[in-house]
Design a protein that fits this description.
The chain is of the alpha/beta class. It has two domains: about 80 residues, Methionine synthase domain (Methyltransferase, Methionine Synthase (B12-binding Domains), Chain A, domain 1, Orthogonal Bundle), CATH 1.10.1240; about 120 residues, Cobalamin-binding domain (Rossmann fold, 3-Layer(aba) Sandwich), CATH 3.40.50.280. About 55% of the residues lie in helices and about 10% in strands. Helix 8 links the parallel strand 4 and strand 5. It is globular, with a radius of gyration of 18 Å. Bound molecules: cobalamin (B12). The site of cobalamin (B12) has 39 residues, from helix 3, helix 4, helix 5, strand 3 and strand 4. Cobalamin binds next to helix 3, helix 4, helix 5, strand 3 and strand 4.
């Protein structure tokens, strides 16, 4: 996928109006919405680096998140259109883990799963192991999808997976994890069944997991 440098630059310079105009123009000329999303993610990575260098502050991260939210209002329906028309495939409970409030990626994964025909139960952010176990008992999902963006909250993810096992619920659910600190290897280490690095990949992996569960 070719990167649209102007969009990446516009978002990373926190130009709200310019970013929205560029996204609308690309969608208007028929660009693949997933390619536009990939550029937005590149911009957010860039913003993360600028924040790490000390040039941006928390307020800038908050503003970047609000630009991304506006952009998603345009992109979301296009992404859903692209994934539409499939039959119900299974139930997924999704959460951002304890001590982590990053939910942009989690929300994106949730809406693409929904568009692909999954029934989605969204537990929100800063979700404890106990809340996940209660949800499994109440909603009986086929899959639990966990998201985290902080290196420190990978531990919360591992705690949740351990607690699911300790509670005797592990045989009934598959667990998929994602978020920037994760990798396929780390996913296995913390006891997950699968890993995805993007919302479209989350859909592919969840379909595989449903297949493995024999549905
Ligand atoms: C926006 C943002 C915020 C916003 C979040 C707003 C919100 N509602 O989410 C705010 C300002 C609140 C915030 C706060 C903080 N943040 Co912040 N934030 C970001 C930023 C810039 C973008 C994240 C984002 O939304 N990306 C876009 C989405 C679409 O991508 P994504 O989340 O990766 O999700 C995709 C994939 O990962 C995957 N995926 C995600 N989840 C899942 C789950 C499953 C199951 C699957 C299959 C796939 C999957 O699919 C998604 C869609 O394609 C990142 C920088 C970066 N490089 O990402 C820093 C970043 C994550 N934040 C960081 C930090 C340090 C913080 C703070 C600690 C800052 C502070 N000192 O207070 C706090 C922590 C708050 C907390 N307790 O959670 C660091 C983390 C560093 C680390 N190694 O731990 C980063 C990397 C910035 C940096 N480089 O320093 N942040």
């Amino acid at each position: 996928m070719a990167t649209d440098v102007s969009l990446v630059t516009c978002i990373s310079e926190l130009d709200e109006e310019g970013s929205l105009a560029l996204v609308k123009a690309r969608i208007g000329r028929g660009d693949d919405p997933e390619a536009v999303l990939a550029d937005c993610r590149k911009a957010l990575e860039e913003i993360g680096k600028i924040y790490e260098s000390g040039e941006y502050f928390i307020a800038d991260l908050v503003f970047a998140a609000s630009i991304f939210k506006d952009v998603m209002e345009v992109l979301g329906p296009e992404l859903r259109k692209a994934a539409k028309g499939e039959v119900k495939t299974g139930k997924v409970a999704i959460a951002t883990v304890k001590d982590d409030i990053h939910d942009i990626g989690k929300n994106l994964v949730a809406s693409m799963l929904d568009a692909a025909g999954f029934e989605v139960v969204d537990l929100g952010v800063d979700v404890s192991a106990r809340a996940v176990c209660d949800c499994i008992r109440e909603h009986k999902p086929d899959i639990v999808a966990l998201s985290c963006l902080l290196t420190t909250t990978v531990d919360s993810m591992e705690d949740i997976i351990s607690e699911i096992s300790r509670s005797g619920l592990r045989d009934g659910v598959k667990v998929i994890v994602g978020g920037i600190p994760l990798s396929p290897k780390l996913a296995v280490t913390i006891g997950a069944d699968s890993y995805g690095d993007s919302a479209p990949q989350a859909v592919v992996r969840c379909k595989e997991l449903i297949g493995e569960a024999g549905r």
